[in-house]
Amino acid sequence: MSQPPSPPTEPIAVRSGVRTRLTFIVALLSMVGPFSIDAYLPSFPDIEASFGISRALLSQSLSVYLAAFAASTLLWGPLSDRVGRRWVIMGSLSLYVLASAGCALASSATAFIALRTLQGFAASGGMIAGRAMIRDAHDAESAHRAMSQVTLMFALAPAVAPVLGAWLHDHYGWRSVFWFLCLFGTLMVTLTARIHETLPAAQRQSVRPLVVARIYARTLRHSRYPLMVLSLGFTFAGLFLYIAGAPTVIYDFLGLGTDDFAVQFIPMVAGLMLGAFASGRLSRSLSSARIVTAGFVVLATGVMLNLVQGLLFETTLPLTIGPLVIYAFGTAMIMPAITILALDCFPHHRGTAASMQGFFQMLINAVVAGIVLPALHAQRHYFAIGQALFLSIALALWYLAWRRHITE
Question: Which of 7, 31, 153, 199 is surrounded by the fewest CB atoms within 10 Å?
């Protein structure tokens, strides 16, 4: 049985200019994760040579990062509901800065993978507390628009990260990528120190383990919340398969080189940015549920085209990248809407709700990087089939959530 709906909480009184600055900083915080994942992808061959390891072993540095990111989200959310969003962001990113510097200085694959684990543990704090900050400071409609703006910046990161990473790699070596991440983390700590806390003292929650465990149990028992966050997680998995598999797509399927990551990421990110923009504009006239439904129509179109090109046509750049742009557009359409719908299931525990959402999403990504991707890397059409399966699961979950909503 689902929990009764909690009474809505009013957003804190924040001036428009302050909300704009807050949204911009949260948008930059959303780039930490994609930068940490994508910036070092062009350096894979050199890192493998530097440590004398295989591609399969180096890929574990991505999967452990994602697994640590997923696990740590369960810590940062409840902590942000207790001590405030601002301190969680500054504390977690300070640890991220140290871990990034450690990756740059690593002398063995073992140390590098261990420090990537620590980096993933720290990187999630800003994303989780930042999402809660957006909902703290906005009503439902303006929160959707603000989250669409955050998604725009989040979408920009996967395009910028591999291009910037390739440039740093070519000029200064692969270690410079992690020095850049160290500097970016330092910048975010500095910017966060200049904003005000959005969680009033009267709304602080307990972080006693039993209390937190009960809240997490409530999120799992909720009639719609787990269905929505899993639906978003599996939808993004269909895109993340191609993000994490970019070295295989670029080097093996398309026969391109280190400097060519932009040909995949820039069009994909253009699709993400356009989808986020469309989602924000549509929020003025359509409900979040209708926007999600429209987004799934776009996603299904992208998947069908991807299956057709993967199964029936020879490998070409336009046929490989085109369907991914459509899929990226649909992903960005639904991401802000589902995020706000999920957070509103628990208005008094938004940090905890954001944690569970981040946990599911990153856990699915970790499985994609560590298990699914190695199983599908041999053939181009395997990627298309994997994406289709992920979207099928996401559609089924969203349908169940929608049916439960209209019957409650």
Answer: 7
